[in-house]
Write a structure and sequence with these properties.
Largest sheet: 5 strands, antiparallel
Number of domains: 1
Strand content: 15-25%
Order of helices and strands: HHEHEHEEEH
Low-confidence stretches: none
CATH topology: Creatine Kinase, Chain A, domain 2
CATH superfamily: Glutamine synthetase/guanido kinase, catalytic domain
Number of helices: 5
CATH architecture: 2-Layer Sandwich
CATH class: Alpha Beta
Structural class: alpha+beta
Length: 152
């Protein structure tokens, strides 16, 4: 099992901590931003070689990204059913996202508050999460992720 999947929720997902504004209501804030690369077909129409190119390009950008400090990069198609279920339980993927499909990756930042999904419905989906009700902070995090990862 991947080292990320072996860690406890407390170690990997601080946005689940009850320490943000209005956290006494058991709330967290998540934002999602989808982006596609104009030079490539959409993932559901693309050949395996195109998906490989997209994943290699995006993983290279994220490896050097200051906004998404790549801690873990998981190829979702290589995970067991239990590992895929664990990612869904942690709200890092949804139903159908972890289906065995080559070159579909989940990148999780070292803080666990930012993630990127490569080659799912879109070429890239960026997620930002915060504990409590913090929509402005999540929006700022998403815009920073987009600036660093989509404009390089």
């Amino acid at each position: 099992m991947s080292s990320f999947l072996d860690l406890s929720v407390d170690e990997t997902l601080p946005w689940l901590a009850a320490d943000g504004p209005a956290a006494d209501m058991v709330i967290s804030t998540q934002g999602r931003l989808a982006r596609n690369l104009s030079a490539h077909e959409f993932p559901h129409q693309a050949a395996v070689s195109v998906k490989q190119t997209v994943s290699e390009e995006l993983l290279a950008v994220m490896k050097n990204s200051s906004a998404l400090k790549q801690k873990w990069a998981l190829e979702l198609g290589s995970l067991s059913l239990d590992e895929q279920a664990l990612l869904r339980e942690r709200h890092l993927t949804g139903p159908g996202v972890s289906e065995t499909d080559d070159h579909r990756h989940l990148v999780v930042s070292s803080s666990g508050a930012a993630t990127a999904l490569i080659n799912a419905e879109d070429h890239l989906r960026l997620y930002a999460r915060q504990s409590g009700f913090q929509p402005q902070e999540v929006l700022a995090d998403l815009l920073k992720l987009e600036e660093v990862n989509c404009h390089n």
